[in-house]
Amino acid sequence: MKKIKTGVFGLNPLLDGGINENSTTAVIGGSGAGKTTFAIQFIRKGLESGQEGIFVSLDENKEQIIREAVEMGWEEIMEYLKDDLLVFIDASGKDFSNFIRKELHTFVSDWKKAGARIAIDPLTPVIWSVQDNYEQRELITMLLKQTRKVGTVLCTLEEHGTEGNLSGHETIIPMYLADCVIHLRYKAMEGSNSRMLKIVKCRNSWHSEEFHPYRIISGLGLVVKQGDFGKTRKKESAQELMKELEKNAGNLPKNAFQKLKETFKELSDAELGNITYAELMRYIMEEYS
Amino acid sequence: MPRGVGKALERAITTKERGMFHKEEVRDGKSEFMNINRKEIFQYLCLHPCSYTSMICKALGLSLHTTNWHLRRLVESEYISKIAQGKNSVYYPAEMIAVSDVPILEILNNEKARAIYVAIAEKSGSFQGEICKILGLQHQAVIWYTKKLESLGLISSLEDGKYRRYYLTELLNRKKEENAMRMKLFRDWIVKRFQREMLSTTILRLTEDKIVLRIEKGGSKAVLTLHTNPFVTVLS
After folding, report:
1. pLDDT > 70 fraction of chain B, expressed in percent and rounded
2. What is the pLDDT of residues A214-231, one digit of tens each?
């Protein structure tokens, strides 16, 4: 899968290089967590790489978001707007829901493979515009399935209710349906160390499972502290595993042996977590005995 | 990668009344023109007959899919005709023009060809280099379009030393006059066609080359502004 950079400093290695192209990402967070800033950085990176950007705002108006972007050091946003490479769309939850139901399919058939970056900030009003859970699921499924044909999509979701509890009805359905889910945990009363980013899931990609502190820095936007994951992932275990695999070559089917050899080449310590290479080898041999 | 996806999405989301389908629309005697998109496409074709689908999309801000759907409906109901030009097709209101005039109107719908024609009209005897300079076009483009315009009889050329100079012919003016009878036939045809469909038809305004009509049926109504002489409007 081709990776594209998120535009958020420090985040890409935590997603093994970035987010998958033509995937959908949900960024969940409470008020002030940095969701809109995240979305702006995502769009900006795309524009710098030659992709068109679409920012669908269902909450703040366009002028406010542009002001925030300029404060983040992105003065050239006005040029992109003038050339229509970046388009801001103000819409209500109901308008957007109607569009998804009636026009999205036609739109996608005209514009698939446009390779754009689309930010929907926030998706919450769309979910609220439909009462029934089944209808909500249908609506969000249609949205995420179709829009990814047009480009790479990022939706922000408001976190309501108990902090850190992502089982709220506004978040649960998009979390299941999105390819990648990132949680921005922000406790406003706790002072400067209260912002933590966690990658809840990322389909078809390795990702960090740790909590990473992040800050919103004037002129830069979100900056994520990587910790140990910032360095190249070590592959010491991979070498040990290869040795064990070679020892057990005779006890494995030929195809399985080849497949495991290729897999172990790419394996890193971080992926094994607290599973030792000896344990892993034992589990594999149990499977093939 | 195709460009313009942002603007297209903005139009699709924010244009409230436009939609491909209106639930109440059925093919049981209701006029094709009660649908706003279809009405606008027909009006556009009266102004610019022999347009390609892409031109209509661009001018009216509609998607390709929506435009094709409405064009199909208008062809099926015989309000417009379709004729192949190369790999694509052009559309024009039925009864409005002679088939032999399609190539003339088709080329003058092209932005560059039209600009060249107008440039020659403004300065008779222009040569290629001058036209390139005034319009900012490449030589090859000017050569191609002037050849085409000349083959259709819209312009003529004369060699003058090392230059080839271009002049307008009387063809377009002649067509404007010759079309006067056809305009009247087209107006009569459209009014009779509406009446045959049991639409209450009122002519609100009638000029030499435009008719404004109101059609009503069962509580629905629409006002159509139809230009009737394409040889007048083709250069607009």
Report:
1. 92
2. 988 877 889 888 876 645
- Whether B152 contacts B104, CB under 8 Å: yes
CATH code at position B117? 1.10.10.10
- Residue B116 pLDDT greater than 90, yes or no: yes
Q: Give φ, ψ of A225 to 5 degrees.
A: -85, 120
* B182 assigned to some structural domain: no
What b/e readout covers B84-104, taking b as 16+ CB neighbours within 10 angstroms? eeeeeebbbbbbbbeeebbbb
Q: Does B1 contact chain A (CB < 8 Å)? A: yes
**Cα–Cα dist B68/B84, whole Å:** 15
The position carrying tokens 């942002």 is B6
Distance CA A187, CA A189 (A): 6
The span from the CA of A57 to the CA of A63, in Å, is 11
- List the single residue in A with minimal CA-CA distance to B13: A99
How far apart CA B94 and CA B73 sit, in angstroms, is: 13
Does the beta-carbon distance from A113 to B1 stay under 8 Å?
Answer: yes
**Beta-carbon separation of B8 and A110 below 8 A:** yes
Which residues of chain B have a CB within 8 Å of the CB of A54? 5-6, 9
Interchain pair B14, A91: CB under 8 A: yes
Q: Do A99 and B8 touch (CB under 8 A)?
A: no
pLDDT at B20 over 60: no
Cβ atoms A221, A43 nearer than 8 A: no
- Cα–Cα dist A171/A159, whole Å: 7
Please count the residues of chain B: 236
Whether the complex's predicted ipTM surpasses the cut of 0.95? no
Q: Tell whether B7 lies on the interface with A, counting CB pairs under 8 A.
A: yes
How many structural domains compose chain B?
1
The answer, yes or no, to whether residue A278 has pLDDT greater than 50, is yes
Residues of B in contact with A4 (CB under 8 A): none
A52 and B6 within 8 Å at the Cβ level: the answer is yes
Q: How confident is the model at residue B29 (pLDDT cuts 50, 70, 90)?
A: very low
Per-residue pLDDT tens over the stretch A85-115: 899 988 877 778 888 887 787 788 778 788 9
Identify the residue with better confidence: B24 or A15.
A15
CA distance A21 to B224: 47
* Closest Cβ–Cβ partner in A54, A85, A90 for B9: A54
Q: What is the dihedral of CA B125, B131, B133, B136, to 10 degrees?
A: 160
Which structural domain range is residue B132 located in? 103-172
- B144: in domain: yes
DSSP-derived secondary structure for A13-24: GGGTTSEETT-E
Cβ contact B116:B146 at 8 Å: yes
Beta carbons of A89 and B10 less than 8 Å apart: yes
pLDDT average, residue stretch B70-81: 89
Segment (H or E) for A99: helix A93-102
